[in-house]
């Protein structure tokens, strides 16, 4: 086990599968204690087994991110147990539906925005004071190329990801005079359940594995990070935007 993140407490949403699973696993391998959030207990338990087998530690939090009251309680619970939070990975997300805007059911629109936008904000709100307490607080939001695309039928998902990125830019400027550093990431097309749902005709073997994508995201969570309010593009392996804090 490496020890780059020894003693750090890291919360990862959507840790039961896909990109979030591997970010959580790799954070634990670097020495962080991982608070793993998702609905699927089986996926969380598998993660826990893998982390323990590698000598790491995790706390499993089975939680539905549509339950805003439960999100609100997380900050207090983390403060009581660990007294701080060093890392937030706001990774959980859903595709909603790919359809013309005029054909999307209100229920689907609202649920997608609730998970991708409202829950992200509620998570930020509950952990913001804890991250500010850390001497090297780091947050990463999993965005998408869709946030900047103009593709037909992707409007719902694109709007939700653009909203998330906007929050992150603003949060970065709110915290620019603290040690906290917050950035967005576009992971690019990745071999996960979400991608298969979006592109059912695609051969998954042609896509990068979530473990490899997670490994490119991990350095954004290290204490030495100085950038904030920016967007890291995994396929291009570089920051796409540099926004001087206003
Ligand atoms: P997956 O569908 O594989 O995993 C999504 C994760 O989010 C799961 O752990 C799931 O857990 C969790 N989640 C979904 N809904 C809820 C909910 N209501 N409550 C709690 N947890 C929930 O997605 P990916 O790994 O592909 O995507 C991760 C992130 O990366 C997403 O934000 C996505 O938008 C983004 N992204 C992915 C791309 C790709 O090609 N894969 C491309 C661009 C961006 P559970 O179901 O157990 O609750």
Automatic annotation (TrEMBL):
Presence of the UniProt keyword NADP in the record: no
The entry's keywords: Oxidoreductase
Origin superkingdom: Bacteria
InterPro entries cross-referenced by the UniProt entry: NAD(P)-bd_dom_sf, Sc_DH/Rdtase_CS, SDR_fam
Keyword Oxidoreductase: yes
A Pfam family it matches: adh_short
PROSITE patterns: ADH_SHORT
PANTHER family: ALCOHOL DEHYDROGENASE (PTHR42901:SF1)
Family to which the UniProt record says this protein belongs: Belongs to the short-chain dehydrogenases/reductases (SDR) family.
Designated name of the protein: SDR family NAD(P)-dependent oxidoreductase
Source species taxonomy: Bacteria, Pseudomonadati, Pseudomonadota, Alphaproteobacteria, Hyphomicrobiales
């Amino acid at each position: 086990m490496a020890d780059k993140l020894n003693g750090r407490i890291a919360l990862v949403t959507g840790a039961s599968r896909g990109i979030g699973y591997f970010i959580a696993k790799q954070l634990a391998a670097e020495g962080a204690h991982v608070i793993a959030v998702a609905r699927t207990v089986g996926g969380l338990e598998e993660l826990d087994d893998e982390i323990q087998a590698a000598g790491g530690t995790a706390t499993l939090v089975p939680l539905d991110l549509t339950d805003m009251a439960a999100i609100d309680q997380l900050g207090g619970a983390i403060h009581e147990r660990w007294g701080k939070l060093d890392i937030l990975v706001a990774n959980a997300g859903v595709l909603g539906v790919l359809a013309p805007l005029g054909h999307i059911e209100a229920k689907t629109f609202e649920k997608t925005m609730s998970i991708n936008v409202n829950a992200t904000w509620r998570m930020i709100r509950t952990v913001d004071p804890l991250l500010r307490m850390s001497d090297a607080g780091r947050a990463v939001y999993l965005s998408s190329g869709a946030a900047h695309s103009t593709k037909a039928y992707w409007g719902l998902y694109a709007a939700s990801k653009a909203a998330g990125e906007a929050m992150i830019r603003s949060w970065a400027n709110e915290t620019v005079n603290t040690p906290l550093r917050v950035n967005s990431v576009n992971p690019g097309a990745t071999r996960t359940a979400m991608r298969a749902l979006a592109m059912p005709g695609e051969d998954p073997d042609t896509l990068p594995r979530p473990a490899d994508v997670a490994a490119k995201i991990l350095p954004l969570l290290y204490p030495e990070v100085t950038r904030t309010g920016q967007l890291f593009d995994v396929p291009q392996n570089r920051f796409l935007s540099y926004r001087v804090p206003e």
